[in-house]
Amino acid sequence: MKRLKYILLSFVFAFGALSSCDEKLDINTDPLAATSADPNAVLPFVFVQYSSRKVTELGTRIPDVSQYISDTFNSPKNGNTSIFLTGNTWGMMYNQILGNLSLVKADAEAAGPTSNNVNAIATILSAHIFYELTSLWEEVPFTQALNGQEFPSPEFDDQQTVLNGIVAMYDEAIALIDNMPAEGNFSITANSDMFYGGDMASWRILANSLKLRALMMLRSGGANVDAQINATLNQPLMESNGQAAYLEYSGQPGAQNGMLTIITAFFGPDNESQNVFGPGDPIDELLRGSGDPRYDLWVARNDLPAPGIDQFPDPSTSVLSNNIIRATLPDMFMLPSEIDLYKAELALDGFAAAGSADENYRNGVRNNIKWWGQDIPGVITTVGDAEIDAYVASLAPPTANDVFEQQYLASFLMPVRAWNEVRRNQFPVLETPPASTISTILKRFNYPPDEVGSNPNTPANKNTDVPMWFENL
């Protein structure tokens, strides 16, 4: 079965790669013929293209790197990053997403303050893409990126420079929102802004929350950002699941979550019957017997053992539930439980502005369980407040590792964030895959060959087990 899965799914990604190989991955050449962009036409493309590519390229190929899924097809976890995976992801992020957003942003700047809302959204989304790029490759073009005329071969910036620039982009977006005129603003349609329907107060909260995410990575790398963190903690941040940022899938043909689409295209009707995605050992070890309601929400046949590292499930093992591997599973961009748990971590480290470590820890656990058992769009199996409250009340006051454990669980089915939490916290401690060519879990992607060939400033690839700057080992 494992061999069959690798062979069949390689056709999916090989086809996707071949269809995109003609797209030049040199980020210095604007791949778009247009010189302007209607936000209500371009933003939907950006949301959908980013989400669909992320779910299929990253969401089905790297979740076993952080081991919240036991094994996936064509995974780079053993140390070898596929040119198709890296090329498609690099091209999607730089050409299709950042390229389009740069046009939207340029038009908004030319239009003036009445398009501050458009400018802010484009800036926030661009900052997030740069965050994911540096999370995957560490050194990436940033300060000279997307300006092919002035910088035909952009230099690659170190991770600290990129992260500081990302924080500045979020500050820029917040200032744009704060300086919107009282009336006459560009009308962003609900279909164009797939997160908040043009509600800029929600975008401001998201910008602050994403800024804290970037600052936490800078802090992990040893940067002195305590003052910036304190200032951000005093700004409105995500608190409830009603503020979550996610892309919703209707479940209709052509609008289904890619994880299920791959299962139905190549194996059968659903995950439980076809045994494609199983829970990783850390998920099983952290949740089995804990009383945490997420175990029953996420894992079917959980009276059976987990598949084990580097193994697909079979009828004798547990498997991820159809409750979550479904057509309407949303693509989660950011959840409030992440903010709660950052506050708990910071409170344990002495940040008074973060509040109570114990209260934030419990809020994070509660918010995440409520997300999966009540608030997630298309929820199937639900969990009542009484059960959630009883479990949260049973938790002991948190240690740092308790907080790290919950940060890991709260990043479930969020591939880049889960990988970042494991590398940032070094917890949970993950086993090296049995057939790995490296001595640790995967730490980084290699640069796509097309970019190496087109840009002489591309750094030499480091071994894929070399930690990134933010790990600060």
UniProtKB/TrEMBL annotation:
The reply to whether Signal figures as a keyword in the UniProt entry is yes
Identify the keywords attached in UniProt to this record, alphabetized.
Signal
Reply yes or no: does the keyword Signal apply: yes
Where does the secretion signal sit in this chain? 1-19
Task: State the name under which the record lists this protein.
Answer: SusD-like starch-binding protein associating with outer membrane
Organism of derivation? Zeaxanthinibacter enoshimensis
